[in-house]
Amino acid sequence: xxxxxxxxxxxxxxxxVYRAKGATDxxxxxxS
Length: 32
Hints:
Blueprint: H1 2-31
């Protein structure tokens, strides 16, 4: 059970990281 919980947490963290990267990429494109 614990492995599943950690996998879910890691997935959520990576999800937010990808979203944050996408947001910064969009901001950069608008600036340039």
